[in-house]
Amino acid sequence: MLQRWLRFIIGAELTGYVLLGWWMHSRDESLLAIVCVIVLIGALWRVSHATGSFLVASALRWREGRREPAGTAWAAWVGEFFARLISFNWSQPFADAAMGPEPVVAGNGMPILLVHGYCSNRGMWWRFCKRLYTARIGPVFTIDLEPPFASLDAFAAQLAKRIEEVCAATGAAKVFVIAHSMGGLVTRAYMLRHAQAGSQRIDGFVSLGSPHHGSDLAVFGLGACVRQMQRQSGWLHELEQGERRSSLPKPPSWSIYTSNDDLVYPPETSRLDWSDNIVVDGIGHVGLLFSPDVFSILQSILQDKVVSRRR
Known about the structure:
Blueprint lengths: L1 H25 L4 H34 L7 H20 L3 H5 L12 E4 L10 H9 L5 E3 L9 H19 L4 E6 L1 H12 L1 H7 E7 L15 H5 L5 H12 L7 E6 L17 E5 L11 H16 L4
Parallel strand pairs: 1-2, 1-3, 3-4, 4-5, 5-6
Helix pairs in contact: 1-2, 2-3, 6-7, 7-8
C-alpha cells in the first residue's frame, strides 16, 4: 500500500514539473531557466524532508536548554538528508525491486527478521540488508506492516503471523528481531500480547531509535499508532505495566539510539530498562539504518548471537 502511495506522490511531482515546464516554455523562457527552476524546486522539496523535523527538534532542545555534542547536529542532518532521499525516493516506493524476494539475504544461521517503523515499509532496510549480505549474515526476512495508520496491536498480530511464517520456512525454532522506531514497540507488544509465542520465538531483540516511552513529536503524526506513541499514552502505560507483571523471561535485548534524533524526542525516551542501552552521536533517526558505525555495533551483536548459533 505504501509503495503505491509513494509512487503516486512521485508521479504527481513529475507531472507538476512537466506542466510547469510547459507553462514556462509558453512564456518563452529558455530551456536553461526551465531546467534550473525545476531542479531547484525538486532540491528544496527533498531538503525539506530532513529539515522540518530537524528544526522542530532543535527548537525543543533550545527551549529546554539542551546541548548536543559539538558538531553532531550538522553531521546528523547531512546523514539524515541522504538517508531520507534514498528511502523515500527509491527503496520504499520501489521496495519490490530494491529488496527482491525473501529471504533478502541467504544464510544458514538463525533467521533475522527486520521490522520497520512508522509510515514505512520493508524498503527502509535496503542499505542495511546490503551490509548484512556483505558480512554474510543471514537468512534475513522483512515484513510490511499495513495499513500504515493502524494500531500497534494490529501490527503486533501481523508480526506474530510473520514470525510463524519465517520459522516454518526456515525450520528454525526462534528468530532474532531488529526493529526500527515504531517497530520496537510492535515487537514489545508481540512479546506481551502473544506471550506464549513470544516466549518461544524471539531469541534476541535490537531496537533502533524506538520511542519506548513515547515521543513529544508524535502529536504531529496521523493514525491510531501515532496516538499510542505519544508520551504518557494509555497504551504505553498498559504495555509497561504488563511487562512488569509478566513472569516470562525476556530475550537478550539492546536499545541503540541517537542523541541527535529529530523524531523520537527527547532521545532518552528510547532507553529501555530491561535492555542494554547504547547511545550514538551525529546520526539522525532514519540515518540509524544507514550508518556504518551503527551497523558495526549490530554486527558484533549478531556475530555472537546469530552467526555462532546454527540450527
